[in-house]
Known about the structure:
Elements: E1 14-15, E2 32-39, E3 45-52, E4 54-59, E5 62-63, E6 79-86, E7 94-103, E8 127-134, E9 137-141, E10 147-149, E11 154-158, E12 162-166, E13 185-186, E14 188-189, E15 196-199, E16 205-212, E17 214-217, E18 220-237, E19 242-248, H1 260-263, E20 273-277, E21 284-286, E22 293-303, E23 306-318, H2 331-346, E24 348-349, E25 351-352
Parallel strand pairs: 6-15, 12-20
Antiparallel strand pairs: 1-14, 2-7, 2-10, 3-6, 3-8, 4-5, 4-7, 8-9, 10-13, 11-12, 16-23, 17-18, 18-21, 18-22, 18-23, 19-20, 19-22, 24-25
Amino acid sequence: MAFSNTREWNAYWISAGAEMVDWQAKVLPAPWFRKEFRIDGEKSCEAFVCGLGYHEIWLNGRRVGNAELAPAPTNYDRHAGYLRYDISAYLKPGLNTIGAVLGNGLYNCHTTETWHFDKATWRDYPKLLLEIVADGQIILASDDSWKVTASGPITFDGLRNGEYYDARLEILGWAENGFDDSAWSRAVITAGPGGFLFEQTAPPCRVRELFPMKQIKPGLWDAGVNIAGRAELTVRGTRGSEIRIQYGDVLNPDGSLHLNDIARFIKSGEFQTERYILKGGGAETWHSRFTYHGFRYAAVEISGNAEILSLTAQVIGSDFAETGGFSCSHPDMNELGRCTRRSILNNFVGIPTDCPHREKNG
Length: 362
């Protein structure tokens, strides 16, 4: 069960079953959960979800909502946020299937770094708490009847390191009715993070802007401005080819990424790096799920036979409503205002930060 100061929970925290015995515990692939359930007739339904460190929810093959990097980071052993989703439009009378995939985020910050979040008191493997309420009645709650696998395509994710994705391991139909999950394990009931649960009423992170990146020389792409977010990759090539993308905000005189000033605080693993392995068979589009980067430039390396068709910058941040603006007759002052606005938004990805690349600590 779970303790909450905003609602009563009947669900159990569940995980893939791994136990973290110390701060040097093995880094594991992302866990994927699924559960089939029935609903009688059309009802008004909500899902209440706390998936730590980050979660995505799927219903009947469709992703629920558009929140990114949810929930926002907290001191998890003191309090953790859950999100409320209106899922009425995703359901159908009769059999339905819900799925969830979890990332590490700051909850399981396994990277050795200057600030020692790898030794945080709350640190543990990802875990899920979920309830669906229909017309005021609980019709589904997370427990050990759910199924889980760690054999999916997200083979690595680290908030400061990046994310690796092997498209050859994609699980077609995993969040749809009738999927054969006989090879999956039963979810394991586990302890919660220790803090009280609260409903996150602050605006979630979302993709706030999209614009194409330009290739300014072979292997180097430019977003034009510094952003917090990621690049969406579209690529075509042979199965097993790998794309490596590393992000930075400044270039050396020779045109390579200048990372010394921001990467030196990260003591293990790669820094702001994503890897994508192609499944082959046509154009493939992908972006990371459970990390973000501070960058203007993306250095791209290709191993194997592949062609980059496009990179699209996705600006991610807390989805604040605009309450005002600034403009005047002086173009330099207007540009300063735009830069200031972008800097503020780049440093509010769930929590306020001092930089979106090296720390992300708040």
